[in-house]
Amino acid sequence: MKRAAAVAWWLALLAACGGTAPPPKISATDDAFEAAVAAEKEHDKAKAKAAEPPPSETHGSRESKGAVFPAPFSWEEIRAATKSGRTYRYKVEIRGKPAKERVLTFVKVDADGCEIFAGGESPKRKGWPSLQKDSEFPKERVQAREETVKLPGGKFDCMVYEVSGNDGEVTTYYFAKNLPGAPVLFYTDVDGKRMKTTTLLQHLQGKD
To answer: Which structural domain range is residue 111 located in?
Structure first.
C-alpha cells in the first residue's frame, strides 16, 4: 500500500519558509502541480481501498484489520517537538517533471493539535494522535532498519521504514531520531525505478 500520500505530512509540501509569515499566493504553475498531486493522492486512496479486506472480514474492529508496525514516534513526542512556526522545506522530484520546492509550516499549535499550512487557501487542522497514525503501516509490509543520511538539511541518524505496496511499488521513509514528526527523506520506487523523491532542505524549530 503506497503511503507517500499520507498526508498532511508527506505530500502536502507547500507554503513559503519563514515561520508565521503570511502564505504566498499560488501561481498558475503551482495550481497545476497541486492538481497533479491531488490526482495522485486520489489514485493512492483507490489503491489502498482495493487492498483492504471486505467488511465481512474486518468486523469493524482495528485488530481484525491486521497488526500495524509501530509508528517511529508517539503523538506525545511529536507534540513536544512541535512549536508554532515549525517549518519543513523540501525539494520534491517527480519523474518526468521539473523539481519543485515545497514547504510545510505549523502556523498554530495547542495542546490538542495543530494547524498545518500546506498551500491552498487555509491551514488544515490535525490532532496529535492523527499525526502519529499517518506513519503507521501494515506490519507485514514493513522492513525496518537504521541508517545515517546526509542531506542538504543536515546529517541525521534515522529509523528507516521500507513499505511494500502493490504492483512492485516500494516507498521508503527516513525518520530522523532527533526530529519527531515528518520524515526527512522519502522516495517511491516501482519495479526498481525511482518515481518520486522528497528531500529535506531545511528544518526550522519554531517558537513557543
So the answer is: 28-204
